[in-house]
Inverse folding.
């Protein structure tokens, strides 16, 4: 097998297909000199909200700022706690800490890598009490105010029982959908339309990626949506009058223009990712390596958009080194569970507290899955993986 170079992600091919659509819009924005919260932002908000099945869209400066402003909009701060996953990108728990609240971790489902609803229920039953109608963490005395499920790698959390928990205990739900635009739960319910606020990232590497940082919040409550809009401009309404303390979370007009072009192609790109995932699944099965390599699990009746194609293997570092030698790009998402991070030592967790999260951090590897992969590249990646085991 002759050596080939297959990067983990190559956006140049994607840009080549949309260049003729994108460049005139960039020129239009530059000619207008309207760079902040212009017409493209307004239209993108409507189009993404419609795409996600939500009533309102609020463009913001990044996926991280989407999470941050969502917490601010729900008045979550000091003395409050938010239940979330320890196996995710740092921003999930980082934004909770930034508003002065406390991240509370519950372990993940080992098949989906998403927050385990039974573990959430177990935490509430074992460690929480109700005082004056408010769920309280008996160990810390903190008010448990919200759930922040992460739809990791493009796959949905099991939202129906999680929403039932939220209703029973009057918890707000912020969906971290940074990797999940277009992901569907049961009966076609789009992620970002189920909880109180959906938070999306348009970082360039995402399925729908901008030409820089960008993000968006979705909401169904018009009052909550308006609060998000006010908070993203320093809490100002009207201009220079501040009833709230917000931040500078505005979405650039140039990024919105680019994203509007890309949104039209998103479903076709998602189909290509799904086809690539199916190819890998079949190749690994036929190569007889399925006993040593676990391919991504897809929840029945749901839509997995494959923001990443994650395999689970015992000798992860050995496979990564082998693929690097063969010219295949890979990445580890994520090498350390958040409860083990230095900055979260104050939370009091220790190694062994979340074995599923720790196991995933030690055994998972992302393979190239982007839509522009050629059949030859896909076959080469699959063969290189199989070669390591056979």
């Amino acid at each position: 097998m002759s050596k080939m170079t297959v990067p983990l992600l190559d956006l140049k091919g994607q840009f080549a297909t949309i260049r003729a659509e994108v460049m005139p819009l960039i020129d239009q924005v530059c000619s207008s000199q309207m760079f902040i919260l212009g017409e493209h932002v307004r239209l993108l908000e409507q189009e993404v909200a419609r795409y996600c099945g939500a009533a309102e869209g609020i463009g913001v400066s990044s996926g991280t700022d989407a999470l941050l402003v969502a917490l601010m909009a729900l008045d979550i701060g000091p003395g409050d706690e938010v239940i979330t996953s320890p196996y995710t990108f740092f921003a999930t728990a980082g934004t909770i800490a930034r508003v002065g609240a406390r991240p509370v971790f519950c372990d993940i489902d080992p098949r989906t890598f998403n927050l385990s609803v039974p573990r959430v229920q177990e935490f509430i039953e074992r460690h929480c009490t109700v005082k004056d109608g408010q769920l309280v963490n008996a160990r810390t005395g903190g008010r448990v105010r919200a759930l922040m499920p992460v739809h990791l790698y493009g796959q949905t959390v099991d939202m129906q029982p999680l929403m039932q928990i939220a209703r029973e205990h009057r918890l707000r739900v912020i969906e971290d959908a940074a990797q999940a635009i277009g992901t569907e739960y049961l009966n076609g319910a789009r992620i970002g339309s189920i909880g109180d606020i959906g938070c999306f990232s348009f970082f360039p590497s995402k399925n729908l990626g901008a030409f820089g940082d960008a993000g968006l919040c979705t909401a169904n409550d018009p009052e909550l949506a308006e609060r998000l809009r006010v908070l993203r401009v320093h809490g100002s309404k009207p201009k220079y009058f501040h009833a709230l303390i917000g931040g500078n979370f505005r979405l650039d007009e140039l990024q919105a223009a680019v994203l509007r072009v890309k949104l039209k192609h998103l479903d076709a790109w998602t189909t290509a990712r799904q086809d690539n995932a199916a190819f890998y699944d079949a190749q690994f099965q036929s190569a007889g390596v399925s006993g040593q390599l676990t391919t991504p699990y897809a929840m029945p009746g749901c839509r997995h958009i494959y923001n990443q194609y994650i395999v689970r293997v015992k000798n992860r570092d050995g496979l990564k080194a082998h693929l690097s030698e063969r010219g295949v790009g890979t990445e580890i998402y994520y090498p350390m569970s958040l409860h083990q991070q230095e900055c979260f030592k104050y939370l009091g967790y220790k190694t062994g507290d979340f074995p599923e999260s720790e196991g995933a951090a030690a055994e998972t590897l992302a393979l190239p899955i982007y839509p522009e992969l050629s059949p030859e590249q896909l076959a080469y990646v699959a063969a290189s993986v199989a070669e390591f085991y056979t």
Summary: The longest helix spans residues 12-32. The two ends are 14 Å apart (CA to CA). The CA atoms of residues 232 and 249 lie 4 Å apart. The chain has two domains: 13-263, 266-389.
